[in-house]
Specification:
44% of the residues lie in helices and 17% in strands. The protein contains 33 helices and 22 strands. It is globular and about 70 Å long.
Length: 911
Amino acid sequence: MKAVALSAAFVLAASSIHAQTELRLPEGMQRVTSAEGITEYAMPNGLHVLLFPDDSKPIVTVNITYKVGSRHEGYGETGMAHLLEHMVFKGTPKHPNIPKELTEHGARANGTTSFDRTNYYETVDDTEENVRWALDMESDRMVNSFIARKDLETEFSVVRNEYESGENNPQGVQRKRMLAAAFQWHNYGHSTIGEKSDIEGAPIERLQAYYKNYYQPDNAVLVVVGRMDQSKMLGLVNEYFGKIPKPTRKIIPTYTEEPIQDGERQVTLRRVGEVQVVACDFRSVAGTHQDEAPLSILAELMRDDPSGRLYKALVETKKAVRVSGNQMGLAEAGLLSFTAQLRPDQSLEEAKKIMLDVIDQVKDNPPTKEEVEKARKRLLKNIELSLKQSDRVGLTLTEYIAMGDWRLIFLQRDNLEKVTPADVLRVAQQYIKPANRTIGIFIPDAKPDRAEIPKAPDVASLMKDFKGKADMAQGENFDPSPANIEARTHRGSLPNGLQYAFLAKKTRGSSATASMTLRFGTLESLKGKATISAFTADMLDTGTAHKTREQIRDALDGLKARVNVGGGDQVVSVNVQTDREHFAETLRLAAEILREPSFPEVEFDKLKRQALSRIERSKSEPDALAGNLFQRISHPKFAKDDVRYTMTFDEEAEAIKALTIEQLKDFYKNFYGASHATIGIVGDFDEAEATAVLRDKFGDWKNPGDYQRIAHDYQQVAAQNETIQTPDKANAVYVAGYGFQMRDDDPEYPALTIGGYMLGGGFLNSRLATRIRQKEGLSYGVSGAFRADPMDKDAAFSARMIYNPDNLAKLEVAFREEIERAQKDGFTAQELEAAKTGWLKSQKVARSSDAGLAGSLNSYLFYKRDFNWSAQREQKVQNLTLEEVNAATKKHLDFSKMILVKAGSFKPSLQ
């Protein structure tokens, strides 16, 4: 195919990143600065370009950030920046159907809006055709987007649906109310989603004017990350963006400054819900200010689970089930926030008093060196791990571009490294004051002690002499084709039965990833133990024979690693992310977590409280209620003691209340082992060392009981149509689907895969999305797909939509008509070719993720497959004919078999 030939030419043209000492700059383009592998260029029209080459993955991410967000909205314009983000996906004369193009190119894409910026990105495989398309599309919609009245008429209802979805979350609504109380004059007091009346009433002329003013090259930063020849990439950028003239208009900078807060403020929210929340906000500094780093550390050491001060005072004492904290530094101001969630039987007033006391006492009980160091390690680890994922770096930089300079990410990292306990105490004394908090009531005070918030620094002066650290280690030019993956993969097993698959390669930042699964039990031996199994897995990382939960967290921070453990029924899953230097030690720590859990009683009690809180919250949430009922209807033939049985929320709560710590210990003793374990490891690691660690830590660990995989063959269920009332919820959920007998190696399944992709997959370009979201504006989120199990004859078609409850009738008509049209008339040849191209490209992008690749290697060991199977599957998709796809769709797509579940606050006439 033409795209393949272009890809070869594009990749062959690329030379080593470090070999490009002198780049050929297009006429008028100037190099601005470089830091840690990223270089900035400026074009004559004002556009700034960041190049971040990474040969380790055959993908390219194009991200463009516009320096406009909700901060720039005028009266009656709340939500306009976000509404415009949606409208820009509606196309241009040259690119009239952007969702269709995104799907055809297999792009991982999105657009997001925040207080200070709006961004759009596409991650594609690194063919020249893909890169040219992405640059052409972004440059074209920068100035030529339709922003048409007819599109606004449908899209505003989609955005309203997104708004209503947020209104379902009481904690999110509370956050909006508190922002408005903390920032009474500055636009940070307006949530990005905007107010419903502004969303619905936005005049097209104002939206067009907003677009023309802010969507211009001198107000944008283009970031290109991935495998590239830098000289050629700059030429392509200049080819597509250089023809856009520099605008003559001048953007008026925002100048509103929030006055010093002169007393406590209180927000009270009363809505339907099952979880209580108490929160406390303090006005703080812009993200560019030197106090951002110590404030971030203060937030971390207060909220950390399990060592944070608020955590110990509220969660460990059973006064709350969860706490959180965050320092939100924006371009012009900031907010230091703390939140606690409570069950209905816990005292809101008591939790509020404890929270305020603990926060206020920081000034008299200064943070210790140990607390500061622990928080610093965690924050630095998260920054470093984010910088190792080059396809996410462009998105991360977006936030710092919005603050004024992309290099702020490195400056803030460096500032974190310098923070002392004295710095944390200083910012606590400066900002944690009753007059500066939003939670309480007004109290007269003859001598008010107020917090004066410093102005945001001048970013140009701040960054004038900044020099970054040495560039992060680059990865190899890795080909993620199934053939190359298979050629590079080494498999083996240990005497106890554990199987492993290794794919060693050079990666950015020398990162390494592992995915491991333990398997145990039989249908008979696991009877009545579903909840016990899930809680046993959740308890593993709460303490070992040698380490408390806090010490485990500290050890992971020291290793710059993440180890996530979870599971239930017959499996426990472990995911590891770290680097070459720390990989062996991290694997040993994971082994300690798995093999030597201590099951501390205090952590068990906290886990139960948190689970019960989640269940209580779910009882009023449309999404949770619809999903639970759909699952119970779809799989009704299992006995209550069968691990395949889906409990009601009340049954789940009763099972959790009845749990004892001894049941978990007995379950672990009787079931856990590595005889049937599999592990996939991908990245920069020493294979011999990894093998030695696996042999040493897992080689003698055998399952004490039998293991037999529990089958999940589909059992026929009659169609049903159910409605759940959820009072006072602005957003509703529609879940639909049905099952049938088929495995994913069935000859018809490739055709169904593509049929489902055309019907409900891709990027807002499917039949369902085009009709329900793009044309009629009924739902913000629309999806539908076929899926089949790799081992059991258990297949299904499923769909999900969110919508305004008043639109239920219209939504049902549109959904049914599109399903029946696809079943009766099938798809077109043009749709099929575009879908095959997009789906195949998306598979390549997925294989470029080391975590995803490790997961596939892990599961393939269990399925007794390798990547030759993937290659054969993709070839089958490539060879599909229209007749095959339409025949399979007609045979297996049937609206009359649908199980329909709708949850929302419906009027009686709509049920």
